[in-house]
Amino acid sequence: MAPACNTLFFFLFFTFPLSIFSAASIHFHHPLDPLTLQELDQVRTIITASHHNLTFHYVGLDEPDKSIVVSWLAHRTTAKTPPRRALVIARLNHQTHQFIVDLSTHSIVSDEIYSGSGFPMLTFEEQTAANSLALTHAPFRASVGRRGLKMEEIVGLSYTVGWYGEEGTSRRIVKVMFCYLDGTVNLYMRPIEGITVTVDLDEMKVIAYHDRLMVPVPKADGTDFRESKQKPPFGPRLKGITVVQPDGPSFTIHGHQISWANWDFHLAFDMRAGPIISVASIYDVEKKEQRRVLYRGYISELFVPYMDLTEEWYFRTFFDAGEYGFGLCAMPLQPLTDCPENAVFMDGYVTGQNGTPVNMTNVFCIFERYAGDIMWRHTEAEIPGKLITESRPEVSLVVRMVSAVGNYDYIIDWEFLQSGSIKLSVGLSGVLEVRGTTYTHVDQIHEEVYGTLLADNTLGAYHDHFLTYHLDLDVDGDTNSFVKSNLRKTLVSGNRSPRRSYWTVVSETAKRESDAKIQLGLKPAELLVVNPNKRTKVGNYVGYRLIPGSVVGPLLTDDDYSQRRGAFTRYNVWVTPYNKSEKWVGGLYTDQSRGDDTLAQWSLRDREIENKDIVMWYTMGFHHVPYQEDFPLMPTISGGFELRPSNFFDSNPVLKVKPPRQVKWPSCPTSISDLP
Ligand SMILES: *[C@@H]1O[C@H](CO)[C@@H](O)[C@H](O)[C@H]1NC(C)=O
Ligand SMILES: *[C@@H]1O[C@H](CO)[C@@H](O)[C@H](O)[C@H]1NC(C)=O
Ligand SMILES: *[C@@H]1O[C@H](CO)[C@@H](O)[C@H](O)[C@H]1NC(C)=O
Ligand SMILES: [Cu+2]
Questions:
Q1: 630 included as an active-site residue
Q2: Catalytic residue among 270, 320, 409, 476
Q3: Percent composition of the chain: helix, strand, coil (DSSP 3-state, to 5)
Q4: Taking the model in full, what pTM does it have?
C-alpha cells in the first residue's frame, strides 16, 4: 500500500555499454517479450535526442495487436516478428506525454500530450527527492526540535494524495509523512504523527506545511524483525527440509517461453503490472493438439483504501500499480527462503527517471512445487476380497514475484496444474501502516480510532486490499461467451417425489456487459467462459470456470471520492469485449485520477459480449482488521482463486499422468519395506 519502495534501487543501477545496443538484433523476439536492456536504452537514446529535461514514468512494450500475435504463434518458425515498439509515458514542462517509439526504425511514431485528469506513476527518484526536500524544510526541522527527536533518525515517505472533489487542473503533489528509526529498522512502526509536508513534484517545492498535533512516537523496543535482533525465548527449531530434484527441473525456459508438463506459456515483466502471463496453452494428449486457454493475465490494479478520517490519514487510498508501480516495487527474491532450493530465477528491467534502464535481478522465480499433496486418489474397498488403492502426488509449477510496496509485501503466485487448472494466489506480509497515539490500553479509548490498538501508542488502521486481475481467457480460440449457471432452489409440487425441494442448474449466457456484472455472495452460481463454437464429444461447450476465493466487496459508498476512483471493485466479476487500450481498471493515469477512466466507465457502453473476444476481470481482496499478531510484522495471509477446465477435456486429463520418477536419497531407504 504505501510509498517509497526504493530501498534497493541504487544498488541495482545499471548503465549499458554504448557498443551493445547498436548491435541489438531484434528478430529473435517473441512478440510479447518485454523490452530488453538494449531496447530500453535505445528508447532513451531516441527520445532524449529530441526532448530534453523530461522524466520517464513508464516504459514498456507497446504490444502488437492480438491478431498479429496469434498469427505469429501459428507460424512461429517462419513468421517475422512484428516491429518492436515501446510505450513511453513521460513528463515534460508540466505536461504528460505519451510516446510510441518504433525500435526498428529508431523513431518516435507518435507523441501525444495528455490533458485529462490524473497523472502517471511516480518515479522513485522524485519520491526520494521529495522526501529529502521535506527533511530540509526549516519549519519541519523546528517541529522535530520541539519533539526532541534526532533529525538523522527520521525517514520521509511520499504518499499519493488521491482526489477529493477538487475542481479544475491539479498540481502533481505528494504528502510527505515521517517515521523514526533510532533503534529499529521497522520504521513504519514508529510514525511521527501530526506533520504533513506537501510537495509539488513538478516544481520540486514544498507548497504546504502542517504541524497539527504532538503524539508520542511508539517505542522501538520489540519492533525489529531481523533474526540478529531477536532476544530469547525462541520457538522450537525444525529439522532441515527441502525439495530435491537430482535430475533437475522438468520445465524448460526459452527466453520468456516456459514449458512444463502439458503447459506452455510466456512470462513477461512489466514495471507497472509486474508479472504478465501470456498465450498459455495446454497440450491435450487425447486430441494431440495444443489448446489455447489464456491470452493474457495480470494484476491490473491493487486498491488499498484506509479507513482513518484524521487529517494525516483520510487521503490514504492507494493504487499500488497505477501510482507506485507494482513491478517497479518488485524485490530480488532470496534463494532458499523466498523460493525453494529447486527454483530458477529470472531478471526484469525497469527504467529510471532519466531513462536509464535498471536490471532488477531475480525478480521472478519459477519452481516445481511438491508439498506432499494428492493430485487424485481412490480406494475401492467394496469389491469382496479386494482392496484397490491408486493415488498420484500433486506436483505443480509456480511462477512467483514479490512486490514490496512500502510497508506491504505482496507475494504473487501463478500456479499451473497438470489438471489444466491455474491457481492464482496473493500472500500479504510485511508490516502494517500504523498511527501513533497516546493510548497504551484499550480501556483508555473513548473515541473512534479507526483501528486496533496493537502495542503501546500503536494503532493498526483498518483498510482493504483489492486486487483486480485482467483475465483474457481464449478458450480454444478468441470467440468466447460468459455463462452464469445459477444453482436454483426448486420446490416439488404434488406427489412427484417424497422430497419437498431440490436444486438444479439454470444457465444464462451474458449478451451484454450489464449481464455479466456480478457481486458474489450467497447465491451460488458457476461462472464460466465457454467457447460456443466448440463442444466436447458428448456435446457440452468447452470452457473454463472461475472458482472465486473468499468474497470481498467495497464497504464505501459509490459516491465516495476514493470509491469513484476505485469503482472497478463494485463488482467481483465484469466481462468486457477485448479492447487493447482497456488495460488498467483504475485508468491509465491513476495518480489523482477522478474516476473517469475506470472499468466501471468503460462498461457503461454495455457492449455485446456473446460469442466475442472477451476479457474477464476478477477482484479478490481482504478487509484487513489488524490484530496483535500482525505486530511488528505480519505472518503471511493468503487468498486466491482458480481457473479450472470445465467440460474442456473429454475426461479427467490426469488419469494417465504417471507419478514422478522416484528419488533415491543418498544412504536412505527408498521405501518402508527397505528398512532393516
Ligand atoms: C534543462 O534543465 C536545466 C536545469 O534545470 C536547464 O539549465 C536547461 O536549460 C534545461 N534545458 C532545456 C532544453 O530546457
Ligand atoms: C542483470 O544482473 C544479473 C546479476 O548481476 C546478471 O546475471 C545479468 O546478466 C544482468 N542482465 C543483463 C542483461 O546484463
Ligand atoms: C477501446 O477503448 C477505448 C477506451 O475505453 C475507447 O476509447 C475506444 O473507442 C475503444 N475501441 C473500440 C474499438 O471499441
Ligand atoms: Cu492489510
A1: no
A2: 320
A3: 15, 40, 45
A4: 0.94
